Amino acid sequence: MKRVLLLAAVLSGAALAAPLKVGLVTDIGGLNDHGFNQLAYQGLLRAEKTLGITGSVVQSQAQSDYVPNLSNFARNGYNLVIAVGYLMQDAVERVSKEFPNTKFLIIDSAITNRKNVTSAIFSTQECGYLVGALAGLVEKDKALKLPGLAHNNIIGVVGGISIPPVNTYIAGYYQGAMATDPNIKILRGYTGNFNDPAAGKQLTLAQHSQGADIVFMDAGGTGLGGIQAAKQGNFYAIGVDTDQAYLAPHHVLTSAVKGVNTSVYDTIAALTKGKFRPGISTFDLQNHGVGIGTILSSVPAKFKAEIAKLAAEIASGKIKVSPNIPKTN
Questions:
Q1: Which of the chain's termini has less CB crowding within 10 Å, N or C?
Q2: Looking at residue 17, what is its pLDDT?
């Protein structure tokens, strides 16, 4: 009898020690978007390495895949299911209701009416402000000689789909650029997708033909085509979500960075400690949840110092950046 009890205790302990299972569902941009899907995956990989969890990934090919992909993880006993992207909000609302014992994390969308859902929201208007401010400084300084820079006081932005996570970046970009160069003109367009580099390239070239020699790629994987256009056409791109300088070291002015990897890792870490918290977690400049990437080496040190100063003033609350695109300009 003692042996039976001992065996039961061992089996019970083994069950308790079983690693947590975490499933990650990408948006249709996929893991090779060099942006937020890839960042989410990096956060999962870090958790596997340092927290001992078991992770799995499925890539969505269409929006109709969201519900089946999320449901499959929940049905198979995953402790946490991660939905990467604003477009998955409706799917998470539905699946989290059907599987109340499964925890969910959604990136870029706020769900507050589910006890089993936590939301990661990023104040990307703040890092958008910084990259816009840098673009304004570079455009305004006529004495600055950078290859391909015409100083037309015209910059552009290529958006993916016109949704809040895209437009908060753009809102900051406008405000930052207008703060450092009040005469700046900003061209704005949307491709309507996040996984079409050819469309990104086409729209970027169209803006460049109208005088924009700096274009912000706020379009996920679609923006990769815009970076390619800047490299081929000898002008400048601004990357998004992750530091994209490595894609074109001489043609990426800088990048607006979003800590999706941090939010994924932190949520998994909290779950391993039994501290999963539903509701909204906000990532901003103050808590290093957003930021600015590598700045082109040929940009003057005085401009880099000015951007660092602006970042500190935003983090301290001295500068308030609206998440809404200005109606003027």
A1: N
A2: 59
At what angle are helices 301-316 and 124-140 packed, to 10 degrees? 150
pLDDT at 4 over 80: no
Domain 2-122+260-283 carries which CATH code? 3.40.50.2300
- Domain residue ranges in the chain: 2-122+260-283, 124-258+299-316
Residues 6+ away with beta carbon under 8 Å from 248: 227, 228, 230, 231, 237
Q: Tokens for 134?
A: 């840098």
> Alpha-carbon distance 163 to 157, whole Å?
14
Strand segments, DSSP code E, in 173-228 are 185-190, 214-218
CB atoms within 10 A of CB 273: 8
Q: Smallest Cα–Cα separation from 159: which of 130, 134, 196?
A: 196
Displacement of CA 126 from its chain's centroid (Å): 13
CA distances from 182 to 68, 153, 178 (A): 49, 10, 5
Mean pLDDT of the chain: 93
Q: Which residue has the higher pLDDT, 74 or 14?
A: 74
Closest to 40 in 3D by CA, of 54, 62, 56 = 56
Is 90 exceeded by the pLDDT of residue 325?
yes
Ramachandran bin of 165, using left for φ above 0, alpha for ψ from -120 to 50, beta for the remaining angles = alpha
